[in-house]
Design a protein that fits this description.
mainly beta; single chain; Lipoprotein; four-stranded antiparallel beta sheet; Immunoglobulin-like; about 140 residues; about 10% helix; signal
Length: about 140
């Protein structure tokens, strides 16, 4: 009976220590969500700002599926001293990550800790590729 009670309390304790992805509340970062709604092979994204660059790819090297969202967390140190900054976006079009193409439209984002920015990447091929702000 004693072993069963110890096991019960251990399981209860472990289940109470929930997993946190670091993306819920309390973060000092800004999140950029980019949803892939393109009709061609997309392996990742690269977001460039004045003081930093961030790349998002699938860990196993597979394509980013249509409808899949990629999230980039920007910390205060990733941005310049100003409270807003413009970024450029590039798409990665091969498995090696060495072929990248620019997305014509760039946006300016404000740095407000915990804020999320939502964008959608659309296009039937790389010639009509565009980035749209969702909300």
């Amino acid at each position: 009976m004693k072993k069963m009670m110890i096991t019960f309390w251990a399981v209860l304790f472990i289940s109470g220590c929930g997993f946190s992805s670091g993306m819920e509340g309390g973060s000092n970062g800004v999140y950029v969500h980019i949803k892939n709604n393109t009709d061609f092979n997309l392996y990742g994204l690269e977001l460039n700002m004045e003081t930093s660059s961030h790349m998002v790819i699938n860990a196993n090297g597979t394509e980013v599926e249509k409808g899949e969202s990629m999230v980039i967390e920007l910390l205060k140190g990733d941005m310049s001293a100003s409270s807003s900054e413009q970024f450029e976006l590039f798409i990665i079009t091969n498995e090696n990550g060495d072929k990248r193409l620019p997305v014509e439209h760039s946006y300016t984002i404000d740095f407000n800790p915990g804020q999320s920015w939502y964008f959608e990447l659309k296009g039937n091929d790389v010639k009509d590729l565009a980035l749209y702000k969702e909300r």
